[in-house]
Amino acid sequence: MEALALPAALPLVAGGGAGLSPERRAALGASLPLVQRDYRFERLWFWGCIQGVRGAYYIAEGLGPDRAAPRSRLYSLNCLDWSLLTPATKEMLALAEQLKGHFQGDPSFEYSLAEIDAEAAARLVQSGKEPVIKEEARLIATIEQIDRAVGIVPRGAFVKTPLGSVHENRYFEGLSLVEAKKLSSYFHFTEPANLKNKTLLEKADLDPSTDFLDSLEHDIPRGKGSKIKRCNEREGNREV
Amino acid sequence: MDQSPEPDPSEEPQSAHPQDAYEVGHGPYQPHEPGYGLDQPGYSPYEDEIPDPQARMLAIKNAKAYLLKTSTKSGLNFIMFYDFCIVNQQYLHLYDRYDHFANILTKILDEQPANAVDIIENISKDVKWAQFRKKMDTLRDEHVVPPTLEAAEKYKALFVKEGGEDEHEELEEEMGQPSLPNVMETAFYFEQAGIGLSKDESYYIFLALKNLINVQPIQTCRFWGKILGLEMNYIIAEVQLQEGEEEEEETEEEGEEIIAEDQNEMDEAEEEDEEKEKEPEPPKSTYKPPPDIPKEANGTGTNKYVYFVCNEPGKPWVKLPPVTPAQIVCARQIKKFFTGHLDAPVVTFPPFPGNEANYLRAQIARISAGTHVSPTGFYQFPVDEEEEADTYEENPEFEPPPVAEMVESLATWAHHVKEILKQGRCVWINPVQKSEENEEDEEEEEEEEQQEERGQALLTLISEDEGIKNIPAWTAQASTDLIPEYSVAILQSNRWPGAYAFASGRKFENIYFGWGHKYNSENHTPALPPPAEAEFPSDPGITERADPTVEEEMAFKAAQEEALAAAEEEENEEAEDD
Fold first, then answer.
1. What is the pLDDT, as a whole number, of residue B32?
2. Which key words are in the record (chain A) (predicted)?
3. Given CA atoms B554, B555, B560, B562 in this order, what sign does their dihedral have?
């Protein structure tokens, strides 16, 4: 969520029991603006935290002028000192999928690949590296997967300009109650994969400035949207 | 149909397009629009419009005359059309044909459009549409109550103070009153760790618990936690009822069970008599279902506490039924998300004996047994009794260790809920003893295979909990490193993600916020169904064998002859010796 709106938005998502302690909240309020200044991000979003056995990772995402461009991700162990994460590669994603179990909480922890995937381990040994995967790489891959699977935005919150870049829609006032209950009013905020597959009739109904992403309607398993209805009734429709 | 269905625009009676009529928020209904006239009160096709018989006859005459008027466009008569339709049985859908025709005719007689025959299909369609449209008031928009307002009303009802008079008297009587837990204080401590609900929700829960105490005869009460569900969530309160109330419910349930058992015995006796008469009987199945393990009595073991749940603070609290060992055993093998409706069926394999309320209760029992901890030494066994007691009491001489020590070593925490055995109970029971009393002696001697299960004793330290692979079962942290003198020790369970405990001085509390599932690093694989049972035991007489080939038969014959020859030789030798 937007770094500046953090204090107001946190109570809205507290229904699941997970939240931030006052210390962390205060630390975020102090460190995020500085990060935004140092890395010259136009927008900085607090992504959330991943719980490990010995500690939690707090993740933030920074965006440039084009909101749909690949985002820079940062992590921190104490909400004060932030480190940049490298972009995810396909190899990382493939390897991380095979790792199971909790995160350890230590970014330099090494998972030995030999037990999990012997081929990949062999390949790494051949190329002169050790057959291990660091927790940092697993973290990067996990964040990427989560973003792809469940990073959603309401329809109309972002507009695509004719030049191709994506901006926030300043005229977006939230979804109406009727619209908020439909799964089709929410989009995955990733590269669209299904838009080309739509029939011409469907494409005729789309507005190219706002409907340039995949909607949630065709996600499997169906019916994930019932929680959205409930939350939105209570919280209003903000992009969180 | 041969006739052209589209009306001639010049001959249409009023403003052109029927489609406009279906926009939201239009003005008064025009006669050609659907919904006009049909939904006015007391106006049905079967009622006579005009009560006066003379005038009615005249109206009927006029109607007939109108209907007989031939359309200028298509030379068809309305009555001819009517006959045609009946013959072709075109309108055999939706509701009764007669009703539909009556409605069409009513509409036509009211509106009296010219060339009704030409637009008859449209009129029919309009009449059908009108059946499904809401009756909308023509002048005002209907007021849609947004669900947020309904929720707000429920929350407001929580704030109403019952019996607002004589507050001082109530305070004096507090000695015998049940203790309302200080939910806000607990929420504060958990908030230091980043766990918990928003302050508003915690306060609503606080008020809802207060209502619960006022309504039910409760001795002690505690906010157990919140279990998330797909459609709605559950807020759970752990409660101990006052003693008289529990006994009443027990006797009711036992009465029902005894009646059921008697009926079963009667049925069995009748069946046996009948069977002796029939012959021959098919082979009986040798399958004996494992004996039912009786559930623990209310107030002990897994049923020590009574649980009340509600979906949201403000909604009425529902009591969960006591849990049976069979339900716990089955709950260990399945993984289902809760939907939020207590009467939803739980469709799984192995089949879960109960609905979602039972499954919820079973998960609550497992979570409580696995994750309710307290600082070591806070509770102690009563001095007079043995070590393996079921009860514990507070230790008045408990001195809380400093927070740093509570965080470093897990030996400073102990479980205070008894572990659930594989059987599904906290106290092991030999199920065989419950069977028919005649065979008791024999079976006790024979079946010692079921070994008594022993779980961990009541106040075991959590450092003895097994971890999952290389991860310990618990993670301990201090809430803050920057201000150690005011930090709180937080304990997080890795086996049941969502279970937390905090300790600060003499205060401690357990809570659960989560989906209600145990941690499983692999994906859940449901149990496979058992292999199909053999229909009958395999006897030598039934098993198939290949017929011996000719060579085998010849060899066998030769062997037999040799044996005979050998036997004869021996006899001959013996005879010679003699």
1. 63
2. Cell projection, Cilium, Cilium biogenesis/degradation, Cytoplasm, Cytoskeleton, Flagellum
3. positive
Closest CB to A17: pick one of B226, B230, B472: B226
* A121, B47, B88 from B266: Cα distances, Å: 69, 61, 62
Test A23 with B233 for CB contact under 8 angstroms: no
Residue A171 lies in a domain: yes
Looking at A39-53, A123-137, B321-335, which range is the least confident one?
Answer: A123-137
Would you call A11 and B199 a contact, using CB atoms and an 8 Å cutoff? Answer: yes
User: Above 80 in pLDDT, residue A6?
Assistant: no
Instruction: List, for residues A73-129, the tens digit of each pLDDT value.
Output: 999 998 889 999 998 888 888 888 888 778 888 888 888 776 666 677 777 777 777
**Interface probe, candidates A23, A229, A240, chain B, greatest B C-beta count within 10 A:** A23
Instruction: Tell me the average pLDDT across A186-203.
Output: 79
Asked whether residue A146 is assigned to any structural domain, the reply reads no
Contacts with B482 from chain A: Cβ below 8 Å: 23
* pLDDT value, residue B235: 93
A84/B contact by beta carbon, under 8 A = no
Q: Are B148 and B109 in contact (CB under 8 A)?
A: no
CA distance B503 to chain A (A): 16
* pLDDT confidence of residue B254: 46
Residues A60 and A98 in one domain: no
Q: Percent of chain A having pLDDT more than 90?
A: 3
For residue B516, the chain A residues in CB contact (below 8 A) are: none
Residues A22, A67, single domain; the answer is: yes
pLDDT at residue A74 in the model: 92
Rg of chain B (C-alpha set) = 40
Interchain CB distance below 8 Å, B471 and A102: yes
| Domain boundaries, position A188 | 152-215
Residues A7, A76 share a domain: yes
Contact state of B468 with A24 under an 8 Å Cβ cutoff: no
Query: Same structural domain for residues A81 and A109?
Result: no
Q: Using CB atoms within 10 Å of the CB of residue B319, give its burial: 0 to 12 exposed, 13 to 18 middle, 19+ buried.
A: middle
B11, with CB counted inside 10 A (0-12, 13-18, 19+), is middle
Q: Please state at what angle helix B53-68 crosses helix B97-111, rounded to 10 degrees.
A: 90
Measured between alpha carbons, how far is B160 from B163 in angstroms, rounded to an integer? 9
Is A56 found in the same domain as A106?
A: no
- Residue A76 phi/psi, 5-degree rounding, is -150, 150
Whether residue A145 is contained in a domain is answered as no
* Residue B312 touches chain A, beta carbons under 8 Å: no
Q: Round the CA-based radius of gyration of chain A to a whole number and report it.
A: 20
Total count of domains within chain A: 3
* pTM of structure: 0.70
Q: Which of the residues in chain B have pLDDT under 50?
A: 1-25, 42-44, 47-48, 71-75, 89-94, 163-175, 250-275, 434-449
Q: What is the pLDDT of residue B136?
A: 63
Q: Which of A104, A139, A174 is the last residue of a domain?
A: A139
Residues A52 and A20 grouped into a single domain: yes
Angle (deg, nearest 10), helices B183-191 and B199-215: 150
Q: Same structural domain for residues A156 and A95?
A: no
Q: Mean of the per-residue pLDDT values for chain A?
A: 79
Per CB-CB distance under 8 Å, the chain B contacts of A16 are 228, 513
Q: Show residues of chain A in contact with B233, CB under 8 Å.
A: 15
Whether A81 and A19 share a structural domain: yes
Q: What local confidence, expressed as pLDDT, does residue B383 receive?
A: 67
Residue with tokens 């169906």: A222
Residues 6+ away with beta carbon under 8 Å from B258: none
Q: Is B513 on the interface with A (CB under 8 A)?
A: yes
Nearest chain A Cα to B520, which residue? A101
Chain-chain contact of A20 with B196 (C-beta, under 8 angstroms): no
- CB of B148 within 8 Å of a chain A CB? The answer is yes
Interface confidence (ipTM) of the complex:
0.81
Contact assignment for A102 to B479 by CB distance below 8 Å: no
Residue A196 lies in a domain: yes
Say yes or no: B229 contacts chain A, CB-CB below 8 A: no
Answer whether residue A238 shows pLDDT above 60. Answer: no
